[in-house]
Amino acid sequence: MNIKTTVLLNNGVKMPILGIGVYLAGENTESAVTCALRTGYRLIDTAATYGNEKQVGNAVRNSGIPRDEIFITTKLWNEDMRNGTQRKAYRESLRLLDVDYIDLYLIHWPVADKYKDTWKIMEDLYSEGKIRAIGVSNFEIHHLENILSDATVIPAVNQIEFNPLNTRKDLIEYCRKKGIVCEAWSPFRRGVMLKHELIEEISKKYNKSSAQVILRWDLQHQIITIPMAVEPCFIEENSQIFDFSLTDEEMKMIDACNENLYMADPNHVTW
Fold first, then answer.
1. Dist CA 256 CA 71 (whole Å)
2. Rounded to 5 degrees, what angle do the CA atoms 180, 183, 187 make?
3. Residue 44 in contact with residue 36, Cβ under 8 Å?
4. DSSP labels for 10-45?
5. What would the pLDDT profile of 18-76 be if each residue is shown by its tens digit?
6. Which residues 6+ apart lie within 8 Å of 95 measured at CB?
7. Using CB atoms within 10 A as the burial measure, which of 83, 99, 250, 254 is most buried?
8. How far apart are CA 86 and CA 157, in angstroms?
9. Number of other CB atoms surrounding residue 28 within 10 Å
10. Which residues of 116-147 are buried (b: 16+ CB within 10 A; e: fewer)?
11. Averaged pLDDT of the chain
């Protein structure tokens, strides 16, 4: 396994197992993505609501790396579901990214009474050939069961809150049974887990950072992970997780930190 290792999605598309997220990257987005691509990352995760799709597109275009070697994920925002402007939002993401296609397009949150009809629109967009895979983000089991009851396309990915304080075991098992790959957003729980006593203890054993231990834990759970970083030193550090492995006991110890704590509850989407 290395930074170029991929996971096979249920439609045959290959998705890198490690990427960079650009939530809150702001004006540093373009330089962060440029650095990530130079370091070897090939998965870039953005979203319409992040306001930086244009910067991502600029970095990809100026990298000199063939487009088909880079995997771009972006997401449909909640207000576009509420306003019925899903197709317009998709076209705007394509325009801002300035690409011919999107590798993975996700419903960002399961907006009540909107996400099921939106999935039908996602299926239509997918059929048009400018999206390589479609999926969801922050969907619980009952949300997935609702769309799967009459879906013609099974989501390829469910991007979820996944970290040692919220390990989502039941959801991950359900997704695997359905052929849906899980992906972790905010694996460090916005920095909280980097100071966790157990994580720090394990990091000292391997002469690794807390971030590297958490990302290694993600990978050994076969979860795609997209840590956000803007400083080159952290972008590079996050990629150096393929030269050590956690023991089964260490994996269980980290799993045992679980408290089912959400940072944002997908069952009550009001934003």
1. 33
2. 155
3. yes
4. TTS-EEESB-EE-TT-GGGHHHHHHHHHHHT--EEE
5. 999 999 999 999 999 999 999 999 999 999 999 999 999 999 999 999 999 999 999 99
6. none
7. 254
8. 19
9. 16
10. bebbebbeebbeeeebbbbbbbbbbeebbebb
11. 97
* One-letter amino acid for residue 15 of the chain: M
Tokens of 62: 């100026």
CA atoms of 228 and 245, how far apart (whole Å): 22
With a CB cutoff of 8 Å and minimum separation 6, the contacts of 70 are 37, 42, 44, 60, 63, 103
Position 103: which residue type?
A: D
One-letter amino acid identity for 61?
Answer: R
Q: Are strands 102-107 and 131-137 parallel, antiparallel or unpaired?
A: parallel
CA angle centred on 129, ends 48 and 50, rounded to 5°: 5
Note the residue count of the chain: 271
Instruction: Tell me the whole-structure pTM to 2 decimals.
Output: 0.97
CB distance 143 to 116 below 8 Å: no
Q: What is the token pair recorded at 86?
A: 């899903």
**Residue 180 DSSP class:** P
Question: Are 140 and 266 in contact, with CB atoms under 8 Å apart?
Answer: yes
**Do residues 145 and 233 touch, judged by C-beta distance below 8 A?**
no
Q: Which residues are catalytic?
A: 50
